[in-house]
Amino acid sequence: MSKKIIIASHKGGVNKSTIAANLGLGFANDKKKVLMIDTDSQANLSKKYLKDNYRKVDGIYELLKGEDVNNCIHHTGYENLDIIPAKQQLSVAKKEMLLSMHGIQQQKLMRSLIPVIDKYDLLIFDTAPGLDIMTFNVFQFLDGTGLLIIPVVPDSNKIEDSDSIEGMNLLLEEISESIKAGENIKPRFKVLLTEVDNDEVSNEFKLITKSHFKEKAFITEIPFSAKHARRRDNFVIEKNRTKISRCYKQLIDEIKEEL
Predict the structure, then answer these.
(1) Does residue 41 contact residue 132 with C-beta atoms inside 8 Å?
(2) Pairing of strands 3-7, 189-196
(3) All domains of the chain in start order, with CATH
(4) Confidence at 91, pLDDT banded by 50, 70, 90
(5) What is the pTM of this model?
(6) Which of 14, 46, 72, 195 suits a disulfide with 85, CB 3.0-4.6 Å?
(7) What distance in Å separates the CA atoms of residue 196 and residue 161, rounded to the nearest whole number?
(8) H helices within the chain, ranges in order?
(9) Measured between alpha carbons, how far is 18 from 196 in angstroms, rounded to an integer?
C-alpha cells in the first residue's frame, strides 16, 4: 500500500513547494517510486520539474475534468520520480467543483487517482496556501497511511503572537470540523520549522515551539539560506556538501520512521 505525504499550511511563503521538491527527489534517490501531485494553481512545483512544459501537458486540471489519470502523469527526468502538474486553469476546476451538486466533491481527486495509487510507494501532495475545495480533496488521503507536514517559519518569540502558529491552528481546526462532519480522516501531523536563522528570534521561537508540540515537531529544522532563496533553488538535496541538503536528508530519515 502506498504512503502519502501532504504538505499544507494556512499561510503562504512557508516553502511548501521547496519541501515537496526535495522530499520527492530524496525519496526517489532512495529507490522509492514517487508520484508528486501539484494542487496549487501557482504551479511552483510543476515549473521546477517540467519547466515551461507544465503549461502544455495534461495535469490535475484535466484529471478533474475526467481525463485518464495515466495521461496526466509525467516523468520528471529523475529516476523513480513522476508528477501530475498544475496550471492556472486549476482555479476554474475548483469553482466548478464548488458549484456542482453531483457526487461527493471532497473525494473527486481520490477517485481519479485510484487506478495508479498502488503503482507508487509514495504520493506527495503540494497544496495551495489556505483551505479550499482542493485541499479538502487532498485531506481525504489522511486515512491512516498519510502524514500531514505543516511548515512553520519563525516570526515571533511569543508563540501566542505567531502568524505561522495561528495559521497552523486554523488548519487543524478545519480538519477537526471535517472529522465532526463525518469525513473519514485520521490526521497524523508533524510541525516542520523552516527558514530557521541563527538569531535570537529564531532560537527563542524554535525552543518554545518544540516545547509546545513535543513529539509533534520534527527534530530536524530546515535552515534559512540566502543563496538558495536568491537562486530559487528547490533542488538543494542534490548538493551533498551543503548544510541544507544534509538537513533534508535527516528529515527524510525522520519521515521514514513516521511512515
Answers:
(1) no
(2) unpaired
(3) 3-258 (3.40.50.300)
(4) low
(5) 0.89
(6) 46
(7) 18
(8) 16-29, 44-50, 60-64, 90-99, 108-113, 133-139, 163-180, 200-213, 226-231, 243-258
(9) 14
